[in-house]
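Box 3.1. Reading complex inputs
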Amino acid sequence: MRKYRLMAPGPTPVPEKVLLKMADTIIHHRTPQFQAVLKDVNIKLKKLFQTKNPVFVFASSGTGAMEASVVNLVSRGDKVIVVKGGKFGERFAEISSAYGVEVVDCDVEWGKSVDPEVVSELLKENPDVKAVYSTLCETSTGVVNDIKAIAKVVSATDAVLVVDAISGLSADELKTDEWGVDVVVCGSQKGLMLPPGLAFLSLSRKAQKLVESSSLPKYYFDLKAALKAHAKDDTPYTPAVSLIMGLNTVLDMLLEEGLDNVLKRHAKLANATREAVKAMGLELFSEKPSNAVTAVKVPEGVDGGALAKKMRDEQGVTIAGGQAALKGKIFRLAHLGYMDEYDTIGALAGIEIVLSQLGFDVRLGKGVGKAQELFK
Amino acid sequence: MRKYRLMAPGPTPVPEKVLLKMADTIIHHRTPQFQAVLKDVNIKLKKLFQTKNPVFVFASSGTGAMEASVVNLVSRGDKVIVVKGGKFGERFAEISSAYGVEVVDCDVEWGKSVDPEVVSELLKENPDVKAVYSTLCETSTGVVNDIKAIAKVVSATDAVLVVDAISGLSADELKTDEWGVDVVVCGSQKGLMLPPGLAFLSLSRKAQKLVESSSLPKYYFDLKAALKAHAKDDTPYTPAVSLIMGLNTVLDMLLEEGLDNVLKRHAKLANATREAVKAMGLELFSEKPSNAVTAVKVPEGVDGGALAKKMRDEQGVTIAGGQAALKGKIFRLAHLGYMDEYDTIGALAGIEIVLSQLGFDVRLGKGVGKAQELFK
């Protein structure tokens, strides 16, 4: 027997009681019973997203909500700034380009976080920019961006700030309204402890004005239709009923734990992981590491592909390798959602075993011991 | 105790073993384990859709796949014919208009099915039409369209035929390749016996050529990306893992039963329902009734809203009322998916009880008896 351990940055493990909730009888979505659930969900989502504005739920993966944040805010030929420091930052640029939106690249070396001063300069050089797009946690590099500082810069202009918090929400601090973040995009299969299939988008008043003037074509992801339905605790199209029933349960779990405690839990697991891998003699990849996922450089002489594969196929622990240019060069361990100290210790123990199998000189228990110290 | 009975045309009841399959441990989607599932699913979907062409799976509701069938096939200013005989036919026109596609209306009175000759005439008058859109079963009216005859007309031209079989697939006959249907769109929460959250789209070679030339903007629903991923049994964006695990199980169930038997089952339930309501003294709304859902006129003097509400809140049987202009004028009973004779008999018994409560003169057991005769 070897249990299946999911330690990649999404999908993340789903609590058993949430799995069972989603296995309950499917109810019809156009009924007072389901509307009561949606009403509940809408209130709780605002708390989780730290906003007084509506948070929409789409039946789609996170990319769908990213697309919604482009097609509803700008028009063909409009200019946007995109912070590109990894695969997901680049996705915003791809979506914008697909719709004929002009992208001002804010290039960031993978592994580094964006300097808010650079965003400020770009905004000064391009005063006609309508929106700035950035990730909170860039999942592909494990970097967290300083959204507070970026929001300070952007909110002083006419532009809106859109943050991809798909992997970051509930792991890295994000005070949406307090900081002045206009749009937050999220997905279900990360810190929200659900299977993939739901995407979220919060919308500030400032962003709602752009929605009114945006002329890009859209239908399924049309926020005007979403706003109209949301006001009646409804959805424009058939919602993913079972996932929303699960969502209601995870929101209860997260709010009961308390958002501060949820953030502290992620911080604790992430910190212990960082210290543990350093104790093993490894090096962090991210200059400014996120608490959602830790990216670690594969040490010289070790086959990064073999590391991830042996972890999954022999140890039963699914971690993530590097994506695109980082393939084989880093591995990533998540701290997202339904994970605790002993999940982390298990994964670290597996990493030590596989590293030593691959010829890396590490004393078994070195990193694990460090994590134990920090957890005790 | 009053059980929850879902007899509306979607969402439909989900088999218990499918609910439990979806409650299993979530696995990572970029692994050989999940790719093996996708490979299986892709083969079985072709059988269910009666096509040799790829069938894509989206994390979205059916409307997402409808949008995909517009934005990938035509370009701004192109002309399409839309068969509008109900809410869902009209949705194709709404999506097309949202993207600047010129719609040639093929208006059909709600409750009637389209005359293929009219489609033929419209194609002659508009030889530059790129695509024809029609529903198989128009869920809002319970009408089935003669797709075989329409396909004969359309396949003789350069235009492609797109069929919304969201509620019709597996209930009404649809021989995709044999009839020459280019694109079939479907959703998970109808005949496929799954919760809502997945959408499907099959694509003929003729339609693939249009995909190459279409210049409408798209990203999440981009079929070029879907085609590329599909060839490797992968998906462009994170798939709805748990729903796809359930999909694999329902496809096994449907293929084991045999597509012919699945169709016969729906036909049997639909026929018994039609005869039973006629025996109660009611009148069918649809000129050419679908085997997915039966639409029945609310008899004079009966409050249609109260009928559906009492069925749901007092009898525990969720049926559907009429939509848009048909509100209060019809009620709809589904035969879709995980339903058998005794579900149908239960619903008919409830209808008789509530109709008599609402002052309609019906002998209890009259319609039920008729159904029993046809089932015995």
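In summary: Chain A has 14 helices and 14 strands.
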